[in-house]
């Protein structure tokens, strides 16, 4: 039976939570384990639906993976396949990153296109053109990609835009290249740095991640390692926005302020006191916030598109109007209609959404449209009068270990219950 999240709003938040390991970091790292000849132990690995999907792909390829408390142990010695089925590929966006890793390890790969949140068109043309520049022959036929790369050669690859996934895919393929690869106009996201750090912990030589030029010296034999995954900045942003929405005083253990500068700046402008002490972040938020200046999503270090929906939810009851501009994805306002069911006032025109604060929100039956949109419904529900039933939470489970558990630790009234209506 499917489940829904039941949130009874109106409680100030008070409490502490430890931030899970980052989904967007651990997924490319799991693909990268294919390059290591030796066991890898990933500490702080979040237990997510997307991690389960990665484990299924690894096992399908002949690799071994099992949980040891909060660590995921992976041994890719048994790899005996270089193709991934359409069903496995469609489960998440990050399945695409297996392409670079399989090519580097096996010299060939056969797979289809990835799934992931539906946020408008999400092509992988930059991944494919970059891999072709490194020497891969890629034939696209009947929804499948047939890739052959008996010999990959390092060179400069200039990305048309700083795509996170393309940067990561090319980093992995480049580990299997002869010579040095330089990725120019690379994505600068912290998760790219985490991937670099993981690869280097396995004996690779990767430099420059975090800047727009990443160099990879290819051809090195990589060994296993034990590695701790970075904290999830988007989960942290979600909980900061939860406190902003409901009001309260919360502490996020392990959250890294340097990864969250644009989010914390917006929350401070809205009236929250956000402080970091080296071990975590505290947010003290009063009941009603102020609207803030335009929130324009942009590649890191700009405002993250993944935090757009949760910040929007936090500002639904603010005084004044806030303009959002979504510049990364064409269709990332699918949560807006659901928020309107709760009494929000939001007008969308193309890439712009204008949120005018209302005095009250009310509970309603709402449906997750995607991962962060779903989290945003829960953030809004914390400030709504009455009960909100959030259905289709399979989207939320892709990226949050247990959102209801964490919200409860922060003092919210939130629980997972059976969704009897959907199933009847
Ligand atoms: C698993 C993971 O890490 N997902 C993150 C990653 O997604 P993902 O890696 O899919 O996002 P990209 O950075 O690649 O995409 C950003 C933009 O580039 C475009 N594009 C991308 C690749 C390509 O080959 N061609 C192309 O045109 C996309 O359509 C989009 O407009 O970065 C996004 C942007 O920060 C985040 O929202 C996702 O949470
Ligand atoms: C959009 C996201 O994930 P994915 O790229 O895996 O769909 C996200 O993490 O918000």
TrEMBL record:
**Can you tell me which residues bind UDP-N-acetyl-alpha-D-glucosamine?**
93, 122-126, 306, 328
| Residue numbers annotated as active site | 117 (proton donor)
Keyword list (alphabetical) reads: Cell cycle, Cell division, Cell shape, Cell wall biogenesis/degradation, Cytoplasm, Peptidoglycan synthesis, Pyruvate, Transferase
Tell me which residues bear 2-(S-cysteinyl)pyruvic acid O-phosphothioketal. Answer: 117
**Catalytic activity annotation:** phosphoenolpyruvate + UDP-N-acetyl-alpha-D-glucosamine = UDP-N-acetyl-3-O-(1-carboxyvinyl)-alpha-D-glucosamine + phosphate
- Sequence similarity: Belongs to the EPSP synthase family. MurA subfamily.
Q: What's the protein here called?
A: UDP-N-acetylglucosamine 1-carboxyvinyltransferase
The organism is Oscillibacter valericigenes
Name of the gene: murA
């Amino acid at each position: 039976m499917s489940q829904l999240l039941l949130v009874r709003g109106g409680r100030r938040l008070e409490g502490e939570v430890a931030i899970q390991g980052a989904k967007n970091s651990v997924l490319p790292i799991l693909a990268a384990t294919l390059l290591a000849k030796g066991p890898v132990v990933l500490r702080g690995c979040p237990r997510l639906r997307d991690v389960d999907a990665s484990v299924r792909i690894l096992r399908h390829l002949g690799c071994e993976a099992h949980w040891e408390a909060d660590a995921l142990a992976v041994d890719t010695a048994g790899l005996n396949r270089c193709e991934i089925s359409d069903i496995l590929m469609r489960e998440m966006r990050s399945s695409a990153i297996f392409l670079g890793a399989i090519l580097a390890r096996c010299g060939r790969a056969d797979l289809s296109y990835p799934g992931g949140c539906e946020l408008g068109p999400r092509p992988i043309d930059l991944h494919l053109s970059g891999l072709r520049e490194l020497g891969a022959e890629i034939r696209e036929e009947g929804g499948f990609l047939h890739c052959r790369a008996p010999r990959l050669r390092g060179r400069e690859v200039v990305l048309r835009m700083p795509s996170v996934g393309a940067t990561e895919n090319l980093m992995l393929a480049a580990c299997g290249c002869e010579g040095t690869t330089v990725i120019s106009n690379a994505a600068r996201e912290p998760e790219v740095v985490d991937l670099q750090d993981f690869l280097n912990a396995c004996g690779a030589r990767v430099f420059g991640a975090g800047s727009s030029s990443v160099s990879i010296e290819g051809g090195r034999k990589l060994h296993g390692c034990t590695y701790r995954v970075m904290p999830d900045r988007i989960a942290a942003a979600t909980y900061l926005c939860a406190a902003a929405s409901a009001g309260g005083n919360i502490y996020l253990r392990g959250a890294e302020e340097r990864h969250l500068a644009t989010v914390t700046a917006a929350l401070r402008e809205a009236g929250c006191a956000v402080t970091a002490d080296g071990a975590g972040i505290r947010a003290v938020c009063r009941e009603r916030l102020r609207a803030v200046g335009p929130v324009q999503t942009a590649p890191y270090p700009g405002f993250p598109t993944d935090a757009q929906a949760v910040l929007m939810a936090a500002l639904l009851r603010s005084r004044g109007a806030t303009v959002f501009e979504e510049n990364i994805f064409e269709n990332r306002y699918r949560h807006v209609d659901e928020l309107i069911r709760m009494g929000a006032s939001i007008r969308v025109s193309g890439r712009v959404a204008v949120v005018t604060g209302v005095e009250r929100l009310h509970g309603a039956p709402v449906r997750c449209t995607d991962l962060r949109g779903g989290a945003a419904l829960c953030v809004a529900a914390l400030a709504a009068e009455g009960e909100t039933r959030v259905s289709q939470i399979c989207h939320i489970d892709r990226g949050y270990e247990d959102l209801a558990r964490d919200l409860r630790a922060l003092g919210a009234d939130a629980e997972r219950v059976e969704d009897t209506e959907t199933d009847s």
